[in-house]
Write a structure and sequence with these properties.
There is one protein chain. The strands form four sheets. The protein has an eight-stranded mixed beta sheet with strand order 1-2-10-7-12-5-4-3. The chain has one domain: Jelly Rolls (Sandwich). By secondary structure, the protein is an alpha+beta fold. Strand 3 and strand 4 (about 140-145) form a beta hairpin. It is about 25% helix and about 20% strand. The chain has ten helices and 16 strands. The radius of gyration is 20 Å and the shape is globular. It has helices at about 25-35, 50-55, 75-80, 80-85, 100-115, 115-125, 160-185, 190, 260-265, 345-355, and strands at about 65-70, 90-95, 130-135, 140-145, 200-205, 215, 225-230, 235-240, 245, 255-260, 275-280, 290-295, 305, 310-315, 320, 340-345. This is Non-haem dioxygenase N-terminal domain-containing protein.
Length: about 375
């Protein structure tokens, strides 16, 4: 397999403290989260713990996200920005990815999951965050995280469709990032540095007999924009800061979720979705489902900080900055940062190994 350094530049870091030291309250919360994860599901807290996430939410009916056609992405996203920024997700239709390519990529992915354990370890060795991992403690679902090239040490597997699908999904993600940055009047970091973002392909297989559960919710890796291809019309749940939200999208559309890095980049204006969608399965179902998501994320060595306003030329020929005037502006009219800068590597390591903590993991970095 090609080294993860191609996408992440170096392997797993030791669990060192973040450059921004947590408070005693935050440390206590982290300890409580780890203890709760070791409890049996029946004893787990009713907060945002994996046991809750695997149960189907009965608190609200399934909703349809705001629909934005890719062919009119910039205009429609600008007009729906107040709604999208509060929800943290929308449905993208009329994109350029052929359904035939998506289904060929799905077939490639199924061939990987049908490998023996020895072949999996040989072809896709674990190198954090890449490789196979159990999605939850009940072994209902399992995930495979691949770099943007879908690298493998195998010369026998043909993953050409999966690689092409991953490349095309990333292109869509970069277009969404540019449209989102433009709508918010923020600098797009990719504009000056194409290597400012990278991507991960996250494939999950849910199999076996189920008992009215939401599945595949435990694993958590930070990202800017998540793209989740809808192979079939199937409801799923998104974990937002206000709780679980059941949603349903059209077949062959792409569910777009805004991640924790997008919230920081927007200085808190964009609400986030934690992790990726959790598929719903009917009680007594004995089928196998596959979900495929591309995460537009950051290289490990990155520093996460709110983005600067996008430059604009004023009527006098000078350069102005988009001025988002609100209660968060200081006396000079400059917007105060709601987040301190922090190491992406430290943050990614923490949230990946803690799975979904009880407390918002971004709280420790807020001013």
């Amino acid at each position: 397999m090609a080294s993860p350094a191609q996408d992440h530049h170096h392997s797993a870091p030791p669990p060192t403290p973040s450059t921004t030291q947590p408070t005693s309250d935050s440390a206590a919360t982290d300890l409580l989260s780890r203890l709760l994860h070791r409890l049996p599901p029946s004893l787990s807290s009713s907060g945002s713990t994996p046991s809750l996430l695997r149960r189907r939410s009965s608190l609200s009916t399934t909703t349809t996200p705001p629909v934005i056609p890719f062919t009119d992405l910039n205009t429609t996203l600008s007009s729906l920005l107040p709604t999208v920024s509060q929800l943290g997700y929308f449905e993208l239709t009329d994109h350029f990815i052929p359904s035939e390519l998506a289904r060929s990529a799905e077939s490639d992915s199924l061939s990987i999951f049908n490998l023996s354990s020895n072949q999996r370890d040989q072809y896709f060795p674990r190198c954090w965050p890449l490789g196979f991992v159990d999605d939850d403690e009940d072994n209902i679902s399992e995930s495979l995280l691949l770099d943007s090239s879908c690298s493998t040490d195998s010369t026998e597997l043909s993953l050409s469709s999966l690689r092409e699908f991953t490349r095309e999904m990333k292109k869509v993600g970069l277009a969404v990032l540019e449209a989102l940055s433009c709508a918010m009047g923020l600098q797009n970091p990719v504009q000056d540095d194409p290597d400012a973002v990278t991507s991960l392909m996250w494939i999950s297989r849910i199999c076996g007999s189920f008992d009215d559960k939401m599945t595949g919710s435990g694993l958590f890796y930070p990202y800017v924009v998540g793209l989740h291809y809808q192979f079939r019309s199937q409801s799923c749940s998104l974990l937002t800061d206000t709780g679980l939200v059941p949603v349903s999208c059209k077949t062959d559309s792409i569910l777009i979720t805004l991640g924790d890095i997008a919230e920081v980049w927007s200085n808190g204006k964009l609400k986030k979705v934690r992790g990726k969608p959790a598929l719903s399965v009917e009680e007594g179902s004995d089928t196998t489902s596959l979900s495929m998501s591309v995460l537009v994320t950051l290289p490990l060595e990155s520093t996460v900080t709110p983005l600067s306003p996008r430059a604009a030329i004023n009527n006098d020929g000078g350069i102005d900055r988009h001025d988002n005037k609100n209660e968060d502006c200081n006396e000079e009219g400059r917007e105060e940062r709601l987040f301190n800068s922090f190491s992406f590597e430290d943050y990614a390591w923490r949230v990946y190994h803690e799975r979904l903590p009880l407390k918002d993991p971004l709280n420790r970095y807020k001013n």
